Amino acid sequence: MKAQVGDTIRIIHMDDNNGKDIAAQKMNGVIATINHIDSIGQLHLKGYGLAVIPHLDTFEIITK
């Protein structure tokens, strides 16, 4: 199932560059709504500065 703008997702694991990216580690478990999908497919969430990269990060769609 492909994520779309308006979907609510839960981040299961955001790639943290082998433990070097603390901001990414803090995103694990976050539940947020997709605000924008950019031209390379990154998911931008309302209220968060880091984008979810679908082929790198693990997430689940909670509501469509």
How are the SSEs placed, and which strands pair?
Blueprint: E1 8-13, H1 22-25, E2 31-37, E3 43-45, E4 58-63
Antiparallel strand pairs: 1-2, 1-4, 2-3
Percentage of residues assigned to helices: under 10%
| Main sheet characteristics | 4 strands, antiparallel
- Work out the strand percent: 25-35%
Strand order of the largest sheet: 3-2-1-4
**What's the SSE pattern?**
EHEEE
- The rough form would be described as globular
Write structural notes for this entry.
By secondary structure, this protein is mainly beta. It contains 1 helix and 4 strands, in the order βαβββ. The protein has a 4-stranded antiparallel beta sheet with strand order 3-2-1-4, with no helix packed on it. The longest helix has 4 residues. The model has no long low-confidence stretch (mean pLDDT 95).
Keywords for this entry:
single chain, 64 residues, mainly beta, four-stranded antiparallel sheet, 1 helix, globular
Summary?
This protein has 64 residues and is mostly beta strands.
